[in-house]
Amino acid sequence: EVQLVESGGGLVQPGGSLRLSCAASGFTFSDYWMHWVRQAPGKGLVWVSRMNIDGTTTTYADSVKGRFTISRDNAKSALYLQMNSLRVDDTAVYYCVRSAAIGNDYWGQGTLVTVSS
Amino acid sequence: EVVLTQSPGTLSLSPGERATLSCRASQSVSSNSLDWYQHKPGQAPRLLIYGASTRATGIPDRFSGSGSGTDFTLTISRLEPEDFAVYYCQHYSISPTFGGGTKVEIK
């Protein structure tokens, strides 16, 4: 069974940092592109970042470029999102998402990041 | 960047009724890159339709997708109680984008 389990969310002050993790299981992690998608309270889904299978290609939404860094460890079947210079509008549930040729077919349950003073 | 506009924002319908959701792109996109997702509160989003018209694994045949170019449609032929949720279209590209969502609520 495919599972994606996010962790690392929490309360952080504006300007602070957090590192999100996503533990993948039930599939060959190194065969898939991976994404982070977020949803602010009461708002819609917003794509954040993606990484290719070997970590050599990354893309970011303009809103997080220069502040967030996506990475992966295929040996550990893990995806990460390092978030620096956090802002109040980064408050959201962050989802780890597997990307297949048939679409984003598996999503984690999400981890809540709250940026507040 | 392609902007996706979904309409209506909210659809109030009764179980058994037909739901028609629209997703309009700001420029023509490949049908291969247009997907639909269902999202319920407290749950992970679920892939419904990929490539504009192909149902994902395990998705009931009451869900169907159609369209091309700039206009795409998700149709739920007969609403079941579990179908009341928010639906998003997504364009998959170098910088993927989501539409703003359509909430299907019980009338």
Could you characterize what this model shows?
- With 117 residues, chain A is mostly beta strands.
- Chain A has no helices and eleven strands.
- Chain A has strands at residues 3-7, 10-12, 18-25, 33-39, 45-51, 58-60, 68-73, 78-83, 92-100, 103-107, 111-115.
- In chain A, a hairpin with a 4-residue loop joins strand 7 and strand 8.
- The termini of chain A are far apart.
- The mean pLDDT of chain A is 96.
- Chain B has 107 residues and is an all-beta fold.
- Chain B contains no helices and ten strands.
- In chain B, the strands form two sheets. In chain B, strands 2, 4, 5, 6, 8, 9 and 10 form a seven-stranded mixed sheet that branches.
- In chain B, strand 8 (86-91) and strand 9 form a beta hairpin.
- Chain B is globular, with a radius of gyration of 13 Å.
- The model of chain B has no long low-confidence stretch (mean pLDDT 95).
- The A-B interface holds A 35, 37, 44-47, 50, 59, 61, 95, 102-105, 107-110 and B 35, 37, 39, 43-47, 50-51, 54, 56-57, 86, 88, 90, 92, 94-101.
Approximately what portion of the residues of chain B adopt beta-strand conformation?
Answer: over 45%
Unreliable stretches covering 5 or more consecutive residues of chain A: none
| Helix proportion of chain A | under 10%
Quote the beta fraction of chain A: over 45%
Oligomer: heterodimer
Instruction: Work out the radius of gyration of chain B.
Output: 13 Å
> Distance between termini of chain A?
40 Å
What global shape of chain B is seen? globular
Shape of chain A: globular
Helix and strand element order of chain A: EEEEEEEEEEE
Structural class computed from helices and strand pairing of chain B: mainly beta
Number of helices, where a helix is a run of at least 4 consecutive DSSP H or I residues of chain A: 0
Q: How many alpha or pi helices of chain B?
A: 0
Q: Describe the main β-sheet of chain B briefly.
A: 7 strands, mixed
- Rg of chain A, alpha carbons: 13 Å
Beta strand count of chain A:
11
Low-confidence stretches of chain B: none
Derived structural class of chain A: mainly beta
Average pLDDT number of chain A: 96
Biggest beta sheet attributes of chain A: 7 strands, mixed
Average pLDDT level of chain B: 95
